[in-house]
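for the recovery benchmark. tokens below, seq after
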């Protein structure tokens, strides 16, 4: 087995437990390019290959960062991941901060769109992890940033 070692600021050098030999070229490309640092104040994101089924064995992350005093909000418009009661196969995890080590805002799978997710600060970190089993369409979402005034996010 071969493992890809990846240097990250948050976790040092870590083996990503994925058998690279089992990936086809497209899956390997997605695996290597599926890391997003997002600083735009608003936009659209989706799972790899959306609206087609997402690849097997991927680890993707989106780190949303905005100016101090603003917060990040994610709104899902379509959501289809492999279903499991405890989301142990394919899942989308959203964290309230700069990394996976930040507190978890939610872990999602299945076919029900999550409610809008709002970070408590100017950073949000989201991970999409899939296994070698079933694949689904994935997700389509919009994000925005702004100041929270009362209960509304002002863009």
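predicted aa per position
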């Amino acid at each position: 087995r071969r493992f890809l070692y990846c240097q990250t600021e948050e976790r040092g050098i870590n083996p990503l437990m994925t058998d690279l030999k089992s990936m086809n070229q497209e899956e390997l490309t997605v695996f290597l390019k599926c890391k997003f640092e997002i600083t735009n104040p608003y936009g659209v994101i989706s799972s790899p290959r959306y609206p087609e089924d997402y690849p097997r064995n991927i680890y993707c992350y989106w780190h949303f960062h905005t100016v101090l005093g603003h917060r990040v909000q994610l709104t899902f418009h379509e959501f289809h991941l492999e279903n499991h009661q405890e989301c142990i196969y394919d899942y989308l995890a959203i964290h309230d901060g700069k990394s996976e080590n930040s507190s978890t805002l939610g872990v999602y799978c299945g076919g029900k769109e999550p409610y809008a997710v709002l970070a408590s600060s100017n950073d949000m970190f989201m991970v999409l992890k899939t296994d070698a089993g079933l694949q689904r369409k994935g997700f389509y979402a919009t994000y925005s940033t702004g100041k929270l005034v009362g209960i509304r996010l002002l863009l």
